[in-house]
Amino acid sequence: MKKKTKKIILIIVSAVLAVALLAVGTVFAVKYIKNNVGTTVISFESKTALSGDNVQLSFEIAKNHGIWGGQIKINYDATAISFVSCANGNVFDECEVNDVDGSVNLLLNQSELKSSDINGIIATLSFKIKENAKKGDYKIEFDKSTNFCDENAEIIEPILEGGVITVK
User: Fold this and answer.
1) 8 and 84: one domain?
2) What is the pTM of this model?
3) Are 120 and 61 within 8 A, CB to CB?
4) 3-state class (DSSP) for residue 13
5) C-beta separation of 91 from 58 below 8 A
6) Checking CA distances to 44, which of 31, 106, 139, 159 falls within 20 to 30 Å?
């Protein structure tokens, strides 16, 4: 009877340890997946301003699995907002900007032919709210023509989330 009792206790202890290890492993796996796996997201922040104000609006990338470069077109309401400047962020090495009334075109890439998996601010755009801007929300949106690729010229399709400048 002693051998049988020892065997049962050993089986129960082993089962409890296995369940505990499984639970700890699951927690770490969920944290890893939540932070590192999933669709890449590129999103603008939103801001509130008064007419006549200058506004800096950053857009950033999260869950970056490797992007070498991109051609980004950002649309805005030129009747209420004017583009002032663009500052490159910490994700891409090179940033070229072309402003056409109502849209900003950015050409971003790494200086070497190697994709970046850095998460962070892609660029910060500065806008001037026109003095005659009416109160309300003005969307800052990614155009459908926006595209990204990796070092092998494979198209990357991140989720693109625009922002809003609310004029009070």
Assistant:
1) no
2) 0.75
3) yes
4) helix
5) no
6) 31
